[in-house]
Amino acid sequence: MDVDLPGRPSTVKTLPGVPGLGGLYARAVLPGWPRLPGRGGEEPDDASLPEVTYRAADVVADPEHLVRYQRLLGEPVDDVLPAGFVHVLAFPVAMALMVRPDFPLPLAGMVHLANTVTVARTIRSDERLEVHAWARGLVPHPRGTQVELVTEVTARYGAGDAMEVVWRGVSTYLAKGVTRSGVGAGGSAAAPASAPFTPPMPTARWALDAGTGRRYAAVSGDRNPIHLSALTAKAFGFPRAIAHGMYTAARALAESGVGRAGAGRSGAVEWTVEFAKPVLLPSSVAVSITGDEASGFEYVGWDARRGKEHFRGHVTPGAS
Amino acid sequence: MPRSPQTPTTTPRPPASPTPDGREAVIVGGNRIPFARAGGAYADASNQDMLTAALDGLVARFGLQDARIGEVVAGSVLKHSRDFNLVRESVLGSALSPQTPAYDLQQACATGLEAVIGVSNKIRLGQIDSAIAGGADTISDAPIAVSEGLRHALLKASHAKSLGARMKAFASLRPADLAPATPRTDEPRTGLSMGEHQAITTATWGISREDQDALAAASHQHLAAAYDAGFFDDLVTPYLGLVRDANLRPDSSVEKLAKLPPVFGTSLTVPATMTAGNSTPLTDGASVVLVASRDWAQAHDLPVLARVVDGETAAVDFVHGHEGLLMAPVHAVPRLLARNSLTLDDFDFFEIHEAFAATVLSTLAAWEDAEYCRTELGLDGPLGTVDRSRLNVVGSSLAAGHPFAATGGRIVATAAKLVATRAAETGQVARALISICAAGGLGVAAIIESAADPSGQPGSGASADEAAPATGSDGAW
Q1: Pairing of the two strands B274-275 and A111-119
Q2: Fold of A196-320
C-alpha cells in the first residue's frame, strides 16, 4: 500500500494518533531538555538524522475545527480542506520527530526558512488520511545548520484500499548558530539571496493586531511562545510577538483563491513560501498578490512603513 | 501592466432605446437636499428623514400630493438593519399616496444611477409609467449605531482642527467597522481603503498633484458659479438650515489646495499626491429623480428634460491588482458607446463622478491610451479625448460632497437639466454621458439626451439637425 519513495526511511514508527503540538513544545523547552542550547545539557554532535518515518493513520478533520480555520484565514466555509489546514493537521507528526532525543538539532529557537506544499487533488473534509513524516537534507547553512522535514498525506482512491499521495509538504528549518561535525556531505545550502528588496505596488494590506498570533495558535495548535505575547516572545529574544509564518502563507493562499474546489478545478496546486524578516505584532503588512487563475499567483509581503520584506512565494495550479 | 484583456471586444447591437413600440423613459426633474459634511447640519437626521425630505420636495415641485407613483426605487450604502424597507417607509412618511410601491436597492456609490436605469427599463417595458429613483446616505447617523470603530473615528474627526486630521481619523477605519465598502473604509478583500486603492491607480497613470488640484478647484468654482446663476433653484430644496452644499468652497484655488498634505498613498514608493482637498469628503444627503413615460408626463402637465437612452454596468478584477478599484466605468463606457453607435465626440456634457480628482483624471488618461484601450478594453485604438470644457461643468462631488447613494440622483438631475437647457439654446439634441465608479470594482455609465420634443425621433444615434423646442427649463443654463 505504501510507495517506497526515495529518501523515506523504511523503518516506520506508527503513532497512536497525531500528537498535540503543545506537549511537543513543552518537551522541547523544558529546563534540562538536552535539545535546548545553553541549558547545560549535553549537546549531541550527531551528524545524522534519525532513520525513521513517523506515521499516523485514520486522521480525519474535525468539522468544527475546519470551520474555525476557514473563518480565520478567509477561506470559504465548505467541505474541502484548504492546503494550509492539511499542514495544521499533519505537521505535528513531523514535529514529533524533531523532539526525539536523537534528532541532531534543537527545536527551540529553530527558524522556519521556507515551505513548499504540493496538493495533488481536492481533499474532502470526510476523507480518512494517513500522515508520514521524515527528516532529510541536513546541511550546513551560512548561519547554522539546515534541515528539511517532509510530511506526506495519503488518502484512499477508487473503491478499494489503495492509497495515493494527495498532499506533500517540505518544511525547511534553520538551527541558528548550531554546527554539527560531519554535516556537509550533502553540500551546503545556498546563501540567502541578498538582492535589495524594492516594494512593488501593493494589492492589499493586512492590519495584523497583537492577537493575530494567539488566534492562529488557537486553530493551528502551534502555541510556540514566540507567537503568543510580547512577554513570552521576549524570553526567546524577540522584541514583540511574531506572526506565524504559516499564517501569512496560508492567508496569501486563501486570497489567491487557487486550489479551491469548483467546476473545472482539480484542486491541484503548488504553494510555496520563503520567509525573510519576521512580522512583529501588531503590524501593517503590505501585500502584493498578482497573477491569474490560469498561470498562478506570485505574492510578497513587506513592512508597509520600512519597506522590509517579510515573505514571498507562489501559488500555482498544478497538473490535475 | 496587465497581462490580458478583461473586456472582450464589444459586438455592437442596435441602439437599446427606445423599445420596439417606441416607449421612452423621460426625466421630468429632480430634487435633492443640500449635502452636508459628516457630523454637520444633518447630524441628527436619519437616512429615512433625508430621503423623505427629498421625496416631499419633489412632490411639492411637481404637484404629486397623494399621487400613486408606479414605483419608488432608492437605497443607502450605510444602512441600519432595521431599515430593511427604508424606501417604502420613506414613501409612507411622504406626501405620496400610501399605495405607492417601493423597494431598496444597493450598489455602493452607483446606487442612485442604477436605480434610475432600473426604473427606466420598467417604464420602457410598460410595466410602470412613473417612478422615482434616488438614494440617501448618512455618515453621521447610520454607522455610529453599528460600529465602535467608526464612532471613534467620527469623534476623533469631530475634534480634529483640520481637514487633513479629519481625513486621517477616517483612514484608520477597519473592514469590521463598516460592512459595506465605502470611501475612507477598507475594501473587504484587500484591506486597502478606497483612497489607498486610488493612490495606486494614480501612481500607475502618473497623475500629477497639480492636475488633481486644478480639477478640484474647478469643481468648487463651477458649483459656486452654478449656484450663483440659479442653476440649482429647481433642483435643490433647503433642509435643516442648509441652502447650499456645506462642502462648497467658492474661494477654493489651486494655491490653497497645494498647501494640503497628502493623505493617501503615503507608503508607496512614489510621491503621494492625494489630499483631503482633491478627495471627496464624507457627506450626508439625499436625492431623487422623477422618471416617467412621456404620456404620463403629458397627462400630468409636467415638463420633460431628457430621456434615459441606455446604461451599462461593468466590473473589474481589482483584487489582484489587474485593474484599479475605481476603473470599472472606463470599461463600461466603450461598451455603452458601441451599443449606441456613439463616440466621445457626440456628447455635449460629461458627468464623471469625482470620487477623487485622480479618479476622473485616470479615467480620461486611460481612454487616451492606445495600448491600454487595445489590451484592456478590446478596442482598435484610443477611445478618445474628453473635451475638458464639457466635463462636470456645474461642479461635481469634490465640491458638492458625496453621500454615496445620493450621488447618482444628483448627477442624473443635473445632467438632465444641462441637456434640456442646451437643447433649448441650440435647437439641437444635446447629450450627456454619466459615469460613476463604486466600491467592489463596480462602475455604471449611462447616456441621457434632451427629449423635449414629443414629435422628435427618439433613438437617433446622430440626429444633430433634429428640432427640439425648448420646454422644461426656465433656468439661465
Answers
A1: unpaired
A2: Thiol Ester Dehydrase; Chain A (3.10.129)
